Amino acid sequence: MKWILLFMVALGLGLAAASTSSSYSFYRLPTAVRPQKYHLKILTHLDNPEELRFAGTVRILVEALQNTKNITLHSKNLTIDESQITLRQISGEEKKDNCVSSTEVNQDHDFYVLNTCQELLAGNVYELSLPFAAELNKQLEGYYRSSYKDTDTNKTRWLSITQFEPASARAAFPCFDEPGYKAPFVVTLGFHKQYTGLSNMPAKETKPHESLADYIWVEFDESVPMSTYLVAYSVNDFANKPSTLPNSPLFRTWARPNAIDQCNYAAEFGPKVLQYYEQFFGIKFPLPKIDQIAIPDFNAGAMENWGLVTYREIALLFSPEHTSLADKQRLANVVAHELAHQWFGNLVTMKWWTDLWLNEGFATYIASLGVENINPEWRSLEQDSLSNLLTIFRKDALESSHPISRPIEVVSDIAESFDQISYQNGSSVLRMMHMFLGEESFRAGLQSYLQMYSYKNAEQDNLWESLTQAAHKFRALPKSYDIKSIMDSWTLQTGYPVINVTRDYGGKSAKLSQERYLLNTQISREHRGGCWWVPLSYTTQGEQDFNNTAPKAWMECGKTGESLSKTIQDLPGADQWVIFNTQLSTLYKVNYDSHNWKLLIETLTEGDFERIHVINRAQLIDDALYLAWTGEQDYEIAMRLIEYLQREREYLPWKSAFENLKRVSRILRQTPEFEFFKRYIKKLVTPIYLHLNGLNDTFSGIQQQDQILLKTMVANWACQYQVADCVPLALQYYRNWRSEADPDEKNPVPLNLRNTVYCTSIKYGTDADWEFLWTRYKKSNVAAEKRTILTSLGCSREVWVLQRYLEMAYDPNQAIRKQDSMWAFQAIAFNEVGFLLAKKYFMDNVNFLYKFYYPITKDMGRLLTPFSEQVFTQSDFNEFRNFVLLSRDSLKGLEQAIQQTLETMLTNVQWKERNYHQMSRSIQKLL
């Protein structure tokens, strides 16, 4: 899954002793009982928009593991009629009558405590029956409502859907809502017969409702044992597209009827990737069917519910006329990610949220392998790997980052773990392990782990055990090494190292030392501790073997965790460079001595630079610019190195450069020296812009798919910096579109350039241009196109237009869905004119925004990103820090995001004071 958050209240009504506070206050459930099976029966009412609600009963078979006088489970925001609760013993020596004598509630942990009339005895099984009811909420979590407009009748159509991860099953029915409590589920849904009911398993039996006319009950097959967060059900009037492969489970893709034609790509891709995983893991998909469904209102990117995978529309629907290649690749990635979870997460589940990365890091990495297998022409494995590393090099260089495996002690902390550390960092360390173990050991280790823990729960040490056995069996690691020692250094401590390489050119050796890399340069050297077990792969100018990513040596840690330096022998002399970390197989930065940098710059700017692997060219750019940012390297070296880009024609090095230059540009554009930076970017980008035929529609003739991504990215920068004819051509495309008789049916703007053309035309255009695009947004039926338009509308330079747009984003009567408001806000806030407006709007309306996003405050955290990138003066930093202190109540649950925002602002302040003039001088020398 991609995201989330919660806290809140359990509700108990009825018995005299109800709603007293529970004395048990540990954050985890007590372990005296565990569920054996759930029978869940729910009646959903969708006919009256004024009263969208559900009511039901859950019968839970619980086994007593030790003698106890109460049953503690979770319940949140549910009305429970306690006079209807029943408890009876169904197995054991003498069956005694039992009942619930009183209940208590612990609001901090959503506990609902049922005190029993008789003691429950260890070994006996009991049946607990609880009735519950609630409204279908608007919060996009638990069991909630969504809607869409029926274009034929212009009427709003309602549907219901679940979103339970990480801890919202308790808001739909009382349950043991922790991942370790796996049990089979028998779900029965009641609803009006004009709808369809879906759940994790196939429908087994349909019968009429006993008292409501035109209502039916649909009972579904009993599920395999699973955690509560994976239970899913929906009542809707959607259409579906079947796409089952031979000898495979039933596969269907669902969407609202007026979008079913956009399901073709996901319906074709899904079964293929499922089949790939069956081969890769050596385990058949264990359910008889799988449904994937596109939900109009959905806060996560997607959710891996077993057998009923839910998606945001943008993550599942594809239109050949409206969806760019980048959006299509993202869609494939999300589908592959969710289907990888059917094994990693669903079949084998982490014991507790501490090891969330075992779900998310694995699904992210394995998805990259799946997409690469099905669409090798995209070269997406390299793109994903670099993209993940670029993200993590930034995020994990903050002192306020956290380990991949992090302790979780309150439910509200779980949501903060659905972040780039669990996903991208988790994925990057798995890729590292794949590369140092090799294919055979890696797959054998994974397969034995999955077989051993199928339908059970595991933690990372269980995985390390399986992989160590495989590594020793296939001789991928020395017997004295074990995976736990190596990988704990990457998953249990925060950050990553920079490896300093100092060569002895006479002795043909190099001394390597490591320390944690941090962006905050005020942190002294002695506080940059930590030690990582680093697999060292490297190659030389004479050898140039970039295909061998196996380690030639290891940097080890001492018994007490101290870092040990390493000397590498048999290196070439002073006429040859050396490059460490072939294909960026491991998460570390490399700082060479100045002579080695000089040799590298010579090859890049004058030599046969394409002999250096494309990922390593991207690495050299990223490392040089990072090390210059923190003052460990001279900006002159970094700027001379990226000069070579005028010769570069590949996507990945340009992506690396643009990611780094974007950060510098957001600071410089607010300063007098921006004039030189603009001229420098023009000089850098012009050759590649002309090489790719500028903004001309040459896409059909491009053979290599990643060249389409390159052209898209270069066009964006070229129009921002007014390179050659970029702006006039963009405006011409837009004028042609506006003059079409039916602009919603016919759009002459090339698909992959729409972001650039729309944004440029709004930036330089009129009020009428803005209104034209806003109308297209309201009329569009394609989620990817709507997102493109939404972000482009924020490109205006008119203060009043941006102010009005900000208010529209948070007006429930406007056409922007709650889940999409963040995109509009970010677009305005990243715009140099909109930045101050958005910052003021956020600070003035923080209380309103908190209520708007609550309980999913994670999205509110995303509003902070543009501020962290653009605040760079001490006074602005102080102002924002004081605002945070005064607004604590409106920023609950955002502690991690706030900390990281303030730290990033501080590193900008440091950069401005340390590097501003030095960088400006370096640029002027190159003009």
Provide a compact summary of the structure.
The chain is an alpha+beta fold. Mean pLDDT is 94; it is low at 2-20.
Which parts are unreliable, with pLDDT below 50 for 5 consecutive residues or more? Answer: 2-20
What's the helical proportion of residues? 25-40%
Relevant CATH superfamily of the largest domain: Neutral Protease Domain 2
Taking the alpha carbons of the first and last residues, their distance comes to 47 Å
CATH level 3 topology of the largest domain: Neutral Protease, domain 2
Order of strands across the biggest sheet?
5-8-3-2-11-14-13
Structural class: alpha+beta
What is the β-strand count? 30
Question: How many domains make up the coordinates?
Answer: 5
- Counting DSSP H or I runs of 4 or more residues, the number of helices is 27
Oligomer: single chain
Shape: globular
Mean pLDDT: 94
Largest sheet: 7 strands, mixed
CATH class bucket of the largest domain: Mainly Alpha
Q: Taking Cα atoms only, what radius of gyration do you get, to the nearest Å?
A: 29 Å
User: What is the CATH-assigned architecture of the largest domain?
Assistant: Orthogonal Bundle
Percent of residues in beta strands? 15-25%
